[in-house]
Amino acid sequence: MSKWKNYKKTYRNEPDIYDFARLGDFRGLADTLSLNSNLNLDAKNHRGYSPLMLAVYNGHRDFCEALLRSGADVNSTDLMGNTVLMASAFKGNVDIIELLLQFGAITTHKNQANMNVRDWAVMFGRTEAVQYLDNTTPNVVASSKIKNILRFIRLSFIMIKKKTKNRG
User: What is the CATH number of domain 2-167?
Assistant: First the structure.
């Protein structure tokens, strides 16, 4: 019975800002911001993602812009040090990459596996994103695809190690 009681404590009936970001729900965002003007837009969910990261992953460009205009950090990172710009490169969404750069996203940041934004685009074959980054951010140098694969594997091991450490 204690497991059920613990579960009930974590269960929520109402959607939150993370749900709104996943869905691109402007109404939910507006209602949440009007009810809580001190809302931390850079807070991370249980998986380490900010609302902006979730909106980027789900391709909600206009929602991303609304978050950025409301004060979200364009350079926020997840638990592995991946930026929202890296997330947009991973997804290959050039419109969101362009938006993030307009809001001052840093292109030279590297995650825990020493990968930058261009490395993510190359790693996942996002040729339009690679071309866009090459044309707009000449200071971003990517490694070879083989080196990126090895870095990605390393990042995976880091994630697994953190998960097992948190459980133990």
Answer: 1.25.40.20
